[in-house]
Amino acid sequence: MRVKVCGITRVEDAEVALEVGADAIGMIFHPTSPRRVEPEQALRISALVGRRADCVGVLVDSDLPHLEELVERFNLSAVQLHLRSCPLELVAQLAVPVWPVVGIEAGLSPWTLPWWPELPLMLDTLTADGAGGTGRPLDLEVAGVIARHRPIWLAGGLDGKNVGEAVRRVNPFGVDASSRLEVSPGIKDHQLVTDFVSAARRAAHGPPGDNGPSSE
Predict the structure, then answer these.
(1) Which of 25, 35, 163, 204 could potentially form a cystine with 1 if both were Cys, beta carbons 3.0 to 4.6 Å apart?
(2) Would residue 124 count as lying in a domain?
């Protein structure tokens, strides 16, 4: 299972996430997001990540030329977009994988998702304009049904206290957290990042009943 820390805007936060074993670092380029990364910081973060993890560009809406520019400039490993912005042709044209973000609050059917089955979906709770980072948990039962039929990234209100239970109930391809790991939008609490990554790892590989960070 893979672990992603999203909403990274500072090099020092990326370094902590990498040191504790995150597989992916998410940088948000959506212009109205409170977690939007500045280009100069994005370049520094990308250089730090290098080959140590995946560097993922997160947007709500975009087009192919803009995505191609971001991929090349910031050496992105993947792009995360709202499903409504993801025509299937985009997958064939873009040089990196595209992960569509899907909100399941309205009772999304796991049988009718119009996306390539080998590419993971990002399940999250969304704002009205389709952005994630709400900090609200989603329905794990629905997520678990989808995860039995295709790979998913599980997001939505995850942190070190609840990610263990979520991993065991859903068995996702990966887990993703942002807002619950912060002291303020875009500024990560390093202990919360450490707890999240560690708890996700223990849940994926450890004994039953390990639900969160150690109390020691």
Answers:
(1) 204
(2) yes
> Could you tell me which residues are beta bridge partners of residue 182?
188
- Residues carrying an active site annotation: 6, 124
Are 107 and 90 in contact by the 8 Å Cβ rule? The answer is no
Which residues are within 8 A (CB) of 54 and not within 5 positions of it... i.e. 6 or more apart?
Answer: 4, 23, 24, 25, 77, 78
**DSSP state, residue 209:** T
Strand, coil or helix: 153: strand
Tokens standing for residue 100: 């569509």
CATH number at residue 151: 3.20.20.70
Domain residues for 68? 2-205
